[in-house]
Amino acid sequence: MAIPILAVIGPTAVGKTSLSLDFAKALNGEVISVDSRQVYRYMDVGTDKVDHTTRREILHHLIDVVDPDETFNAADFAEQASAAVDRIRERGRVPILVGGTPFYYRAMLDEVLTIDVPSDPEIRRDLEAVGDEKNGPAKLHAILEEVDPDSASRLHVNDIVRVIRAIEIFRLSGKPSSWWRDRPKKESSRFAPLYFGLTRPREELHRTIAKRVHQQFHGGYPEEVRWLLDNGFSPELPSMKGFGYRELVLYHMGKMSLEEGIESDTVATRRFSKRQMTWFKKFSPAIWYDISEKEYNKVLSSMIDEAVRHLRAWGVVL
C-alpha cells in the first residue's frame, strides 16, 4: 500500500511556513523542508529558515544538511526525504512536506513518469557566461564530457543550446539526461500525496515579497554574506549565486548599493514566484486556498479535515 503524504505548496512568501506549523501541531506531524536553499548550513537569513526554537518544538528535516561548498541535488533530496518519511512514521507521527522547490517534490513523489527537469535561469545564466568566453563552446563541452559523456558524444561542440541544457539537467538532478531518458517507468508510486496549495492575488504577493526582502536586507543578511565570504566560501559557488546572495556579494565588492540589491532581489523573487506557480498548478491531487479571501482559522480547519480524510483513506489512524 502506498504511503500517504501531506504537502503544503505555494510560491515564496505566500505564508506556507506559519500555516504549516499550526498544521503540523494539529496532526502530530513533523516537517520535511522542500527547499533547495535551506539545505545549506550558515545560510539562514537569506533562505528564511525557521528559528531553532521552532525546530525544537516541531521537528524539521532536510535543513542544514550540507555546507555551502558541498553539492546537493534533487536525487539527494529524494533519497534523504524518503528516509525521513520512514523515520517519522516509525515514531507514529505524520510526515508533512513544506516548501517551494517544485523539482524536489517531483523527484521524490512523481515516480510514475519520467521527470521533466525544469529550467533554472541562474544555472543557465552562468553557463551562458562561460559560452561567451574565449573558447567558450569548447569549455562547455568539456564540462559536459565530465558529467554526461553520453550526451557529449552525441552533441556537437558548437551546439551550445543543447550542451547547456544537458549540463543544466545534471546540475539540477544529479543525473545525466540519458538516465532520465532510459529510466524505466514504475507501475505505481511509493507515495500517495495530497497537496495543499496556498495562493494570494499577485499584487498582494508582490507586496509580501518586497516586505520580506527589505526585512532580510536590514535584518542581518549583509552580515551573513560577509561571514560566508570571510570564512572562505567562494562567491562562485552555486549556493552563493542565488538571488539575494549574489546581490550582497556585489554589495560587499562595492559594485552595488544596498538599495540596488534590494530592488534586484525583489524583482528576481517575483519572477521566481511566477515560475513556482506555473509548476505547482500541475500538481495533483491538490486543494487550493486563496488565503487572502478566507480567515486563517477557516483555511487551517479545512486543511486539517481534508488531511484526516486522506490519511484515514490509506489506513492511518490519528
Automatic annotation (TrEMBL):
What is any one GO biological process for this UniProt entry? tRNA modification
**Where is ATP annotated to bind?**
G10, P11, T12, A13, V14, G15, K16, T17
Question: Which UniProt keywords are present, listed alphabetically?
Answer: ATP-binding, Magnesium, Nucleotide-binding, Transferase, tRNA processing
Q: Which cofactors does it use?
A: Mg(2+)
Which residues are recorded as binding substrate? T12, A13, V14, G15, K16, T17
Respond yes or no to whether keyword Magnesium is given for this record.
yes
Q: Which Gene3D superfamilies match?
A: 1.10.20.140, P-loop containing nucleotide triphosphate hydrolases
The Gene Ontology terms for molecular function here are:
ATP binding; tRNA dimethylallyltransferase activity
Q: Which reaction does it catalyse?
A: adenosine(37) in tRNA + dimethylallyl diphosphate = N(6)-dimethylallyladenosine(37) in tRNA + diphosphate
Q: Where is this site: Interaction with substrate tRNA?
A: T101, R124
Give the EC number(s) listed in the UniProt record. Answer: 2.5.1.75
> InterPro entries in the record, alphabetically?
Dimethylallyltransferase (IPR039657), IPT (IPR018022), P-loop_NTPase (IPR027417)
> Region (Interaction with substrate tRNA): which ranges?
35-38
Description of how the protein assembles with itself and partners = Monomer.
What does the sequence similarity comment in the record state about its family? Answer: Belongs to the IPP transferase family.
- Kindly give the NCBIfam families that the UniProt entry links to this protein: miaA
Cited PANTHER family: TRNA DIMETHYLALLYLTRANSFERASE (PTHR11088:SF60)
Q: What does this protein do?
A: Catalyzes the transfer of a dimethylallyl group onto the adenine at position 37 in tRNAs that read codons beginning with uridine, leading to the formation of N6-(dimethylallyl)adenosine (i(6)A).
Q: State the protein's name.
A: tRNA dimethylallyltransferase
